[in-house]
Amino acid sequence: MKKINFWMASAAAMVLAAMAGCGGGGDGGDTHLPPTLSATLPTTATAGVPVTISGITTTNTTALTVDWGDGTQDAPAAVPTSLTHTYASTATCVKAGSCTIELAVLGWGPAVEKTGTVVVGPAPTLTATLPATGTAGVPYTVTGVAAANGTALSVDWGDGVKETPATSSTSLTHTYATSGSYAIDMVLTGNNGSSAEQKGGVTIVDPAVLALSATLPTSGVTGTAVTITGITATNGTVLAVDWGDLTTDIADVNSTSLTHTYAATGSYTIGMTLTGPAGSKPVVKSGSITIDTPELFINRYISGSGNNKALEIYNPTGHAVNLSSYVVELWSNGRGPAYTTPVATGATPTAALHLSGTLAPGATQLIVNYQAALTGLTSVAGSISGRNDNPTLTFDVTAFNGDDVVLLLKSATADTGVAPRACARDTSGVTSCTVIDSFGVLGKRPTTGASWGGTATPAIRHTLHRKAGIGKGSVPTATAADPWWDPTGEYDVLDSDNLTGLGSR
């Protein structure tokens, strides 16, 4: 059923009725002219946008009606010069693609009509997903763009940049140079002045600032793990470590330490790279490490109560070691060659102990003070007395109390047990042996009341255990500006008489 806007329905009915009653018994003297109609009908329209019948002129007219073809009819009270109508996208004729307009005027005789077809297109639609946040310098992407029934698409990014992408675009990308809040306005233009709009706001933040700190190892030996310690990674998402030997690890960014074992000697460059979210700048930390062949070293320095003192020597190599090429020396109170000069004339160690036998790979050799009373020391199978090789003397290489120097030396030839003994010193105090490990700095002595490591006296009445990752001894040096050596850089400090783990690395 048609919907009629008929403001003069009753009046028009009276007119039509009067007209129908005329002509039967008249005298034939009256002249009745038929109505005329002229108008321009629209041929195209867009749903939701008003269209107009323009240029309406009529004569001899008593009423005017229009059927818009979508179920709506108008009968204005007076004949207008134009009529306007808006087609809804839900109208049946709109869905079919066209509507038939019927414009009619009434007067004497038959009604006069003007008809036409108007092609009605659907209204433009525009949808898109606009993320609420983005990062400066990183492409910001609008996704899910769906532009239908439009002829042109424009985008105002809110930072002074405007673009006209294709209406077929499914995503749009823009890079904001600086942080801030921006209003995005997308407009799809259609026919007959129609349009659809999509708006949104975005907050652009500055990229994350990454920070990376760590302590890289500078030396090590083959077969023993080295460790990167003190790792702190801020705002990163991926932490990669290139160990320099064609091995790369991807680590958890929350790692505080990382270990690696080198298979071959040489110098390597360790490179750590922390990367983060898009837009952030990677942070790189690098350092050099020298990997040597493993060698015997002092594993424990035990300075317990009374004479409960001992040294533990460890074999980190993968083979048995002939101990007859090794000598332990004690230099009481650090006497000996000063740090500024070669060996002082006539300088000799307080005690020297030549080792013997073989030490299996991964095994230890315990040297115990001959007056020790601690059962944990005296009951260790295979331990040897630390007494001086000269049987007439009672000096002991373990007779240290924190301010002495202990050396582990290696001879090019095995000791024969007869003079000249391996690593023997000449009248100038010079030996042909190589010092491969040293507890303390030869020729120096800590200040009175202190030990190596300072007034905290870590080398007095404590057990010092070589830190993990160390596979070779070291020979500390001193200068006039920095004469003291701190063992806590290489040793973990345990309580007095603490023998935890004795006999193992």
From TrEMBL:
Domain PKD stretches: 123-196, 217-280
Domain LTD: 280-445
Keyword Calcium listed: no
Keyword Glycosyltransferase applies: no
Extent of the signal sequence: 1-20
InterPro entries cross-referenced by the UniProt entry: Ig-like_fold, Lamin_tail_dom, PKD/Chitinase_dom, PKD_dom, PKD_dom_sf
Entries under Pfam families matching the protein: LTD
Entries under SUPFAM superfamilies matching the protein: PKD domain (SSF49299)
Keywords for this protein: Signal
Record's protein name: Lamin tail domain-containing protein
Organism encoding this protein: Pelomonas cellulosilytica
